[in-house]
Amino acid sequence: MADIDAAQVTRIAHIADALLGARRSNNVLPMLAAQDASVSMAEAFAVQSEMTRLLGQPIAGWKVGYVRDVRLTHAPVYRDACVAGGARVRLTSSPAPAVEGEVAFVLSRDLPPRASPYTPDEVADAVSSVCAAIEIGAPRLGNFMEAPLEHKIADNMGNCALIYGSGQRNWRDIALESLRVTLAIDGVVVTETCGGNAAGNPFDALVALANAPHKREPLRAGHVVITGTCTGIYPARAGMQARVAFEGLGEVSVTLE
């Protein structure tokens, strides 16, 4: 954190410590403390890095939200929260746990930060497969839905878990921006739609992540990157079984405990 001043270092450490305490005790913070509420975007991303350092757990994936010329958000997903489909996942404490279906990219090579932007072809060459994924959201901030974007970023964008399927290696000819997708909860289809990703083509979100200006940790071979909801967001609860299927891409399921 050499590019920020002492006061910012103190604020970043305080926020990271509070969020880490909530994570470790499986509790929820009502909101960030008053002295931390003015956290900047750069500081919020620095909180993510400090949380990663304090946890000492490898990053296994990333979540990214992208709307061209409007917004780019991202957060790490740690190894214990990035699992293959068919798993059972325990919900963490949260006032508003949620489930959503997304397109995920699995990387076969590193994409470290560099001065010149990666081209779409360079990013595509680093993708080993594209697959159906489910994200489980369980924010650690009680006011997450109403909180400023900077607070959401500091809270790792509310991620609880990332569940991914087997996917497709021959994905370049698939129209990812218009895939038909269904989300079923406990065997009942709750949504069926085409497209629906705010980025348009989910691949554009991956390219934006590779070139993200605030990103401190590199994209690594083996990382799984989810790219924003294609199904909308639905309430989650213990005992629920969710299944997401993308036509021509694959499917994935998870049981929540």
TrEMBL record:
Keywords: Lyase. One of its GO terms (molecular function) is 2-oxopent-4-enoate hydratase activity. Signal peptide: none annotated. Pfam families: FAA_hydrolase. Its EC number is 4.2.1.-. It comes from the Bacteria. Residues 80-255 form the Fumarylacetoacetase-like C-terminal domain. One of its GO terms (cellular component) is cytoplasm. This is 2-keto-4-pentenoate hydratase. It comes from Paraburkholderia dioscoreae.
